[in-house]
Amino acid sequence: MNQAISGGRRQAALGFIFVTAVMDVLSLGVMIPVLPELVKRFNGGDTADAAVWNVLFATTWGVMQFICAPVLGLLSDRFGRRPVILTSIFGLGVDFLFMALAPNLWWLFIGRILNGMTAASFSTAGAYVADVTTPENRAKGFGLMGAAFGVGFTFGPALGGFLWQFDHRLPFMVCAALALCNWLYGYFVLPESLPPERRIKAFDWKRANPIGSLNLLRSKPDLLGLAGVGFLFQLAHNVLPSVFVLYMGFRFQWSPQVIGLTLMASGIAGILLQAFLVGRIVKAVGERGALLIGLLCGFVGFLIYGLAPTSWVYLCGLPIFAFSGLIQPGLQGLMTRRVSAQEQGQLQGANSAMLGITSIIGPTLYLAPFAWAVRHDATLHMPGLPVLIAAVLMLAGAGLAFRFAHPISGEARPA
């Protein structure tokens, strides 16, 4: 598996994959402050109608992830990671240009469809990491991917908001330029990570469709249970983009600037943990231990967020919640050990398909209870209800992990 790339080329390849992952998530982060305002402009400033369109956009994006991620994952198992990653990056750049030039809402809607399709390259990037890292260092490699996720969601909204004040199309143009430069760089420097002898012999649509891709999860011991842990974690994590800005503004009367700084501080804490502590913690407690610690810290962090009576108590939850960054490295380390080199792309595609499902149902799961709690605030006074729902999901994930996250031969174990 590691003969295709060695030494410094492996490090350079991991660096490129990190940048690629950042670009994927950055595209999501930029949309958070920009897309709703752009929709309002196209819709004559009607906030209620804009909200309906934004729900449609969010749902469509999740559906495209659900459909396309397994296809891209299996394509990478058949033809290699490099062509799929480069095609997705190029498509992402073209998609941003499309949205920058969109003359109306329907063009923008088509752009969101393309964005959901091309952003699914995150799954192929995960398979690339599995290819070029040894099983003992795989959790550390996925920690790098987690850091990329943190960078994108920490600085994406800030970038979008900053560029928006100059021109409402400028955020899309800048992201298009970054994506196309990334594609050009990758075209010349990115090596293939999956040699031909380790690829599947034929592309099978039965395995590539979202439902068929889940057959892989059922075919290996404990893999479906671990996928369930990932689903609960992703669904819980969906509370952050769904209601946190509204929640913090309502409960603590924070200004947008304070909310932005708080989210940035939370993101930076997660990035530091992913970059510097994941490898050491996994070495000390193993992948199973890291997964359980991450889920329990996520539960406690959400509990503090949801029940905090003051802003200072809320801020005490930030360093605790940061350790939820251990979840993905530990989980991916356990899951990738249970499939062969030829199935890594299919596995990551199946995981991304489940992420698409959480993106479809997450906003409604959290926005509806939040709206109900706010309407009954005089008697209930529980605006943190959706955050508490996320905490319960984290705890359920911890229970599932305790049942299914069994170590197997070769897993990173406590030193």
Automatic annotation (TrEMBL):
It is a multi-pass membrane protein. GO terms for molecular function: transmembrane transporter activity. Signal peptide: none annotated. Keywords: Membrane, Transmembrane, Transmembrane helix, Transport. One of its GO terms (cellular component) is membrane. Its main location: membrane. It comes from Caulobacter henricii. Resistance to tetracycline by an active tetracycline efflux. This is an energy-dependent process that decreases the accumulation of the antibiotic in whole cells. This protein functions as a metal-tetracycline/H(+) antiporter. Residues 13-409 form the Major facilitator superfamily (MFS) profile domain. Pfam families: MFS_1. It is found in: Membrane. This is MFS transporter. Belongs to the major facilitator superfamily. TCR/Tet family. The chain crosses the membrane at residues 12-32, 52-72, 84-103, 109-130, 142-164, 170-190, 223-248, 254-277, 289-306, 312-331, 352-372, 384-405.
